[in-house]
Amino acid sequence: MSVEIYFCPDHPLEHLDFVATYSVMQDWLIDCDGGFLETLDSCAEVIDGPQTINCASCGNSARFGRPPSALEQIAKQAEDG
Asked: Structure pTM?
């Protein structure tokens, strides 16, 4: 059975954390001029996302699918020198 996950294309076996960018709705307290005073909640609703998912270690764009196996990764490293 093949499992599809997010993975770093350059370090699929080592880099396992990612930064995802979402659009969220947030309630703000504003003054009479419409100026920001403070947030009333951290996130009322997720509007859309994720727009981007990047490796937290190196910044590469994450890929979604079946990551290479350890043997495939070793073979690729041998080819690269």
From this structure: 0.69
